Input
Amino acid sequence: ELLAEGSPAPARMSSDSCSFASALKDPAVRPPRKEPMITTDLAGMYAIRQGPWKLIEGTLAKNKEGKALYHISTDVAERKNVLAENPTVAAELQGILNRIRRPDQER
Output
């Protein structure tokens, strides 16, 4: 988008994406904030953050269970996995993540 100003977005761009090009062009512009925020790494491990919650999906060095849920407002360092205490929150975030990853589903 920055290199091809005015060009349409690529066909494979996810509909949950939002551009922050205006903030890069002008430091006075606040970048858009969109929730939930989804991240992935080169190994394909996904994380979703919404409000004070962050669900990490995949095997982590410090968590062999394959998933971790953190309340990042009270645990910025992500040291206490609260998945067992908050299964409803984890299920909701997992559902959102699953829908976003499936391009044939409405978001």
